[in-house]
């Protein structure tokens, strides 16, 4: 059969609330045109993020009841620890409440003034945690990743030439580790090839610099390697994932993505001293080392999710259903980042709204227009998130790409929900000339996209 179906049936449902155009106009004004400020009840289809929004399986919910809530030595922790060790081969598994808590602990220890951390592309929380430690976060994506309309298999790759230059110039004294984000969320969820992971690892070893993965979407990345990289067609997803991790010295993980849970994360490392320091910080900021910031039932559901996410039928459906959305939008002429990524479709807001310059935030304007048209919540990944105004010269530096991310929660929406999204965005595209830019009227000092307020121009 050619039709790829959801490899699950639905046991429990959650009603959606419909709002009128007039209601949504008022909701947007109240929210300061920031979709993070909107009450979830006022959203019909929520594509803000794929993080923590997965539907758990009956097996995971069963695990929630069985979760061991012991303060110390919870058997659910040991189950998670064993699952992660089997998958990654790392020696020390340090549970945290989510990915950024793992990042905070890692960069508090190895970051600091004068240090530089290269990454294919930092996710916003990773960048913030590097920078808050005093270190500099440097993105080294491959040049083709900046061309939204070019279709290539592994646009998430690290730019090895640029990395080699940087490592050669600054060395292990300045560079405490190199990170590779798989898949590359800030670069349209594009995958990284095994060849690139291996080569990045080799470069790091040559310079004596540790190599870490930001492994939030390791299973989706492994699936892309299976279907796109010669030599892996017959390898199981688990073995591909194991090989990916085998090249690294550690990883940070947000279980809210490929852990298929609503809360959870971990830091995994091989280095004993780094692990000791991390656990010392963990006790202060997260909790005892056998629970981190998590309840026993979270640890249990996380362990089960990490097994389920490796099922090939699930990954086939996951990647295919995301590309279904991308292909339909492309057919209607809507400019998207090509090819579709693993967890989301990214609209190319610059091409969608060429009349709105970067400093008027085309991505934010588009995200608001889509909400207004159909109650669909999306996320700007452009100059609101990554643009900067120089405090001295007042000069505005736009983000390299202006995108709106339609992140697909795992196992949550059906094909008819996605058909509605396709229709709605198609209509917004027809009326795109009427959309105007945005002005920021309030912004906090860091991670401004979460709380900034806007007015339409
Ligand atoms: C690539 C990447 N790294 C790190 C994080 C942070 O994870 P968390 O939201 O669990 O703190 C995210 C979250 O979206 C992410 O996409």
End-to-end C-alpha gap: 51 Å
Q: How much beta, percentage-wise?
A: 5-15%
How does the helix and strand content classify structurally?
alpha/beta
* DSSP, total strands: 16
Bound molecules: pyridoxal-5'-phosphate
User: Over all CA atoms, what is the radius of gyration?
Assistant: 21 Å
What is the typical, i.e. mean, pLDDT?
97
Largest sheet: 5 strands, mixed
Q: Spans of 5+ residues with little confidence (pLDDT < 50)?
A: none
Number of helices: 16
Strand sequence of the main sheet, in spatial order?
A: 2-8-7-6-5
Helix content: 40-55%
Shape: globular
What does this structure look like?
The structure is a single chain. By secondary structure, the chain is α/β, with parallel strands linked by helices. It is 41% helix and 13% strand. The protein contains 16 helices and 16 strands. The chain has helices at 21-30, 58-66, 75-88, 99-110, 124-132, 160-174, 194-207, 218-228, 237-246, 272-285, 296-308, 312-331, 349-352, 362-374, 383-386, 415-430; strands spanning 45-46, 92-96, 116-119, 136-139, 178-181, 211-214, 250-254, 265-269, 344-348, 376-377, 379-381, 388-389, 396-397, 403-407, 438-442, 453-456. A five-stranded mixed beta sheet has the order 2-8-7-6-5, sandwiched between helices. Strands 9-14-11 form a three-stranded antiparallel beta sheet. A two-stranded parallel sheet has the order 1-10. Helix 2 (58-66) runs antiparallel to helix 11 and helix 6 runs parallel beside helix 7. The longest helix is centred in the C-terminal third of the chain and has 20 residues, at 312-331. Bound molecules: pyridoxal-5'-phosphate. The site of pyridoxal-5'-phosphate has 14 residues, from helix 4 and helix 5.
């Amino acid at each position: 059969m050619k039709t790829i179906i959801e490899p699950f049936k639905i046991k429990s449902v959650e009603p959606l609330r419909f709002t009128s155009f007039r209601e949504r106009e008022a909701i947007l004004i109240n929210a300061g045109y920031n979709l993070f400020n909107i009450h979830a009840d006022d959203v019909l289809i929520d594509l803000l993020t794929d993080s923590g929004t997965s539907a758990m399986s009956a097996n995971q919910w069963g695990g929630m009841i069985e979760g061991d809530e012991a303060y110390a030595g919870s058997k659910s922790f040991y189950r998670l620890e064993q699952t992660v060790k089997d998958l990654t081969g790392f020696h020390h598994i340090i549970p945290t409440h989510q990915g950024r808590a793992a990042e905070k602990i890692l960069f508090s220890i190895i970051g600091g003034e004068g240090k530089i951390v290269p990454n294919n592309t930092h996710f916003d929380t990773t960048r913030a945690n590097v920078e808050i430690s005093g270190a500099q976060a440097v993105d080294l994506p491959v040049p083709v990743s900046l061309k939204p309309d070019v279709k290539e298999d592994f646009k998430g790759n690290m730019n090895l030439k640029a990395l080699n230059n940087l490592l050669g110039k600054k060395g292990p004294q300045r560079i405490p580790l190199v990170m590779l984000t798989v898949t590359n969320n800030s670069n349209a969820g594009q995958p990284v090839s095994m060849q690139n992971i291996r080569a990045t690892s080799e470069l790091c070893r040559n310079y004596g610099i540790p190599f870490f993965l930001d492994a939030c979407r390791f299973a989706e990345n492994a699936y892309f390697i299976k279907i796109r990289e010669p030599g892996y067609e017959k390898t199981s997803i688990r073995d591909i994932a194991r090989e990916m991790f085998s090249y690294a010295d550690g990883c940070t993980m947000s279980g809210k993505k490929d852990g298929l849970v609503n809360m959870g994360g971990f830091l995994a490392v091989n280095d004993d001293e780094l692990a000791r320091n991390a656990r010392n910080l963990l006790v202060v900021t997260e909790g005892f080392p056998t629970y981190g910031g998590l309840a026993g039932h979270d640890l249990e559901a996380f362990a089960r999710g990490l097994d389920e996410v490796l099922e090939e039928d699930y990954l086939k459906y996951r990647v295919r259903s995301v590309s279904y959305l991308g292909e339909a939008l492309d057919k209607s002429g809507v400019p998207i980042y090509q090819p579709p990524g693993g967890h989301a479709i990214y609209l190319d807001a610059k091409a969608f709204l060429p009349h709105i310059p970067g400093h008027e935030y085309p991505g934010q304007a588009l995200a608001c227009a889509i909400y207004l048209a159909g109650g669909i919540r999306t996320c700007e990944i452009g100059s609101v998130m990554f643009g900067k105004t120089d405090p001295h010269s007042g000069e505005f530096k736009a983000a390299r790409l202006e995108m709106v991310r339609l992140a697909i929660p795992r196992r949550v929406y059906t094909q008819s929900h996605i058909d509605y999204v396709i229709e709605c965005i198609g209509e917004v595209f027809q009326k795109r000339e009427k959309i105007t830019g945005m002005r920021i009227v309030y912004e906090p000092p860091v991670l401004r996209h979460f709380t900034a307020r806007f007015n339409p121009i």
